[in-house]
């Protein structure tokens, strides 16, 4: 048996032993996506983590995704393969500064992207992901001041699309800001029939050339269902694994980043490996532990997102 087969078998045995659920984000390597029970975008993974009855959930993604599952299901053991799998949006939004920003407005509604720490979520009114942000913001009464963070590019895109003024926190994803509008245009000249697909964390200069803008699952579904056969993909290339499965016939071109680096890969997502997943299941570690001072308020904001996502009404009254 090859060592890869051996590790996969060990993962299966450990998964059965602990009755564990394995979730993987679309930015993980294909071999990790293939051993997961569910692969998805941030919203889908949060939903699957919450609705599962498994006592142990391993999140092959980044730490804020594991924290989200622990917030929604505090009784579960939530494992992440590598505690260093952070996110530049978390790094760009220190709690004290974010709280001071919030406190500088009178009665704002703070909408915080799920790519944030539990502490930052705790000073937020509601959380959103790229797949439900429009619905969340549209549910807030027009007379309320909306603060959006920590991704200013997603915020600017939503503000324009919804024609709604919002105050934006100045954070950004270090991966998505590197896509080059100039190089995408050059690729489009070479392949005029290609559809440009972009994640809304990209800069406005890139989004202006995109035919489709959306979450990772939206971009994958577009490739799956489109009659086009060429696509230029401006997001982390992990998504191409699923796109290829759905459309083996299609030409899937990675949108180039500035320079000649392979820096369109998320360095945090790519810290995860099959070996680390096996070891986390074997040792039941590293586990997510939440800061009790912040968990309850963060949970309320996240639960509010889940409620709106289910199509249920929430109250925006001032307390
Ligand atoms: P999705 O929710 O679209 O999967 O995005 C997560 C993410 O981290 C994008 O950089
Ligand atoms: Fe964070 Fe960007 Fe990586 Fe997504 S791609 S997890 S926003 S650093």
Your description of this structure?
With 319 residues, the protein is an alpha/beta fold. The chain folds into three domains: 4-84 and 269-290, Rossmann fold (3-Layer(aba) Sandwich), CATH 3.40.50.10800; 89-173 and 293-309, NadA-like (Rossmann fold, 3-Layer(aba) Sandwich), CATH 3.40.50; 176-254, NadA-like (Rossmann fold), CATH 3.40.50.10800. Helices cover 43% and strands 14% of the residues. Strands 2-1-3-4 form a four-stranded parallel β-sheet, with helices on both faces. α12 runs parallel beside α13. The protein is globular, with a radius of gyration of 20 Å. The termini are far apart. The mean pLDDT is 96. Bound molecules: 1,3-dihydroxyacetonephosphate (13P) and iron/sulfur cluster (SF4). The site of iron/sulfur cluster has 14 residues, from α5.
What pattern of helices and strands is seen along the backbone?
HEHEHEHEHHEHEHEHEHEHEHEHEHH
Number of strands: 12
Number of helical regions:
15
Helix content: 40-55%
Can you tell me the CATH superfamily of the largest domain? NadA-like
The number of domains is 3
Any idea what the radius of gyration is? 20 Å
CATH class category label of the largest domain = Alpha Beta
Q: Report the structural category.
A: alpha/beta
Q: End-to-end distance, in Å? A: 62 Å
Strand ordering within the main sheet: 2-1-3-4
Largest sheet: 4 strands, parallel
CATH topology of the largest domain: Rossmann fold
**pLDDT averaged residue by residue:** 96
- Uncertain ranges: none
CATH architecture of the largest domain: 3-Layer(aba) Sandwich
What small molecules are bound in this structure?
1,3-dihydroxyacetonephosphate, iron/sulfur cluster
Shape: globular
Task: Bin the strand percentage.
Answer: 5-15%
């Amino acid at each position: 048996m090859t060592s890869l087969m051996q590790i996969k078998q060990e993962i299966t045995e450990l998964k059965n032993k602990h009755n564990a659920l394995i979730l993987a984000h679309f930015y993980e390597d294909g071999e990790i996506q293939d051993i997961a029970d569910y692969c998805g975008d941030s919203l889908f993974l949060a939903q699957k983590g919450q609705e599962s009855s498994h006592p142990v959930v391993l999140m092959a993604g980044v730490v804020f995704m594991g924290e989200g599952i622990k917030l929604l299901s505090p009784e579960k053991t939530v494992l992440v393969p590598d505690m260093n799998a952070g996110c530049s949006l978390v790094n760009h939004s220190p709690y004290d500064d974010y709280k001071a920003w919030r406190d500088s407005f009178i009665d704002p509604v703070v909408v915080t992207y799920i790519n944030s720490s539990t502490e930052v979520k705790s000073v937020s009114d509601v959380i959103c992901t790229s797949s439900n942000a429009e619905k969340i913001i549209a549910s807030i009464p027009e007379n309320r001041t909306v603060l959006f963070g920590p991704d200013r590019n997603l915020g600017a895109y939503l503000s324009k699309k919804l024609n709604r003024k919002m105050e934006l926190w100045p954070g950004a994803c270090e991966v998505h800001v590197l896509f080059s509008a100039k190089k995408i245009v050059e690729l489009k000249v070479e392949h005029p029939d290609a559809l440009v697909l972009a994640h809304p964390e990209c800069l406005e200069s890139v989004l202006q050339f995109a035919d489709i803008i959306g979450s990772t699952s939206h971009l994958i579904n577009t490739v799956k269902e489109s009659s086009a056969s060429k696509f230029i993909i401006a997001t982390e290339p992990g998504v191409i694994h699923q796109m290829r499965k759905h459309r083996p016939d299609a030409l899937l071109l990675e949108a180039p980043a500035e320079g000649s680096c392979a820096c369109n890969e998320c360095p945090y997502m790519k810290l995860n490996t099959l070996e680390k997943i096996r070891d986390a299941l074997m040792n039941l570690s590293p586990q997510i532990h939440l800061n009790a001072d912040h968990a309850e308020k963060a949970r309320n904001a996240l639960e509010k997102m889940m409620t709106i996502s289910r199509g249920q009404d929430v109250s925006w009254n001032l307390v």
